[in-house]
Amino acid sequence: MLAAPIMFDGLKTKMMNAARSPNAERALFVISFAESSFFPLPPDLMLGPMAAAEPSKWLRYAIVCTVASVLGGLAGYAIGMFLLEGIGRSIIELYGYAERLDQFQGMYDQWGVWVVAVAGLTPFPYKIVTIASGMAAFSIPVFILASTATRGLRFVLVAWIFHRFGPALAPIIEKRMGLVLTLVILAIVAGVVALRFIPH
Q1: What is the distance between the alpha carbons of residues 153 and 155, in angstroms, rounded to a whole number?
Q2: Which of 46, 111, 120, 121 has its CA 20 to 30 A from that of 66?
Q3: What pLDDT, in 10s, does the model give residues 125-152?
Q4: 150 within a domain of the structure (yes/no)
Q5: Is 14 part of any domain?
Q6: Model confidence, pTM
């Protein structure tokens, strides 16, 4: 029971160290790519501190994160389309969604692009949706556009918030990174929902 939290803590520590290293931007690209297909932790854990540490590069980091995430999403799509019975199912089972594959299929039939959009903005494991998209043979151009729009929006807003407020809140962010990111992402989702449904 303790193995997963301990492993995640170790990965978080390594990511935080990588965010302060000379190769931080390369590491951000690799993590962003991997997170869209199999890696368990979000690139926001690196993106936030990097944007706070070098405010002038916040947009550059957000773009790197977005490009790598979309490319990684295509890798996840390929896994779902061509390697579902091997690698794909193993990844889905690892995250506890194996029994919901049929449900995902129904969601794509009913909601289509909104499945990708919601996953791109929220803390829901994006890798599950990229693999499920390939499994459902979802339109690749629409998948790329939805992924770019939603992941881009999320990463730009996360980077901007840390660029704007990070230096002043650095001690809190360093100790409570997971909580801060959760609050930031929830705020982003709430803002998008408000813009969509509140009459103008």
Answers
A1: 6
A2: 111
A3: 889 989 989 988 989 999 999 999 989 9
A4: yes
A5: no
A6: 0.81
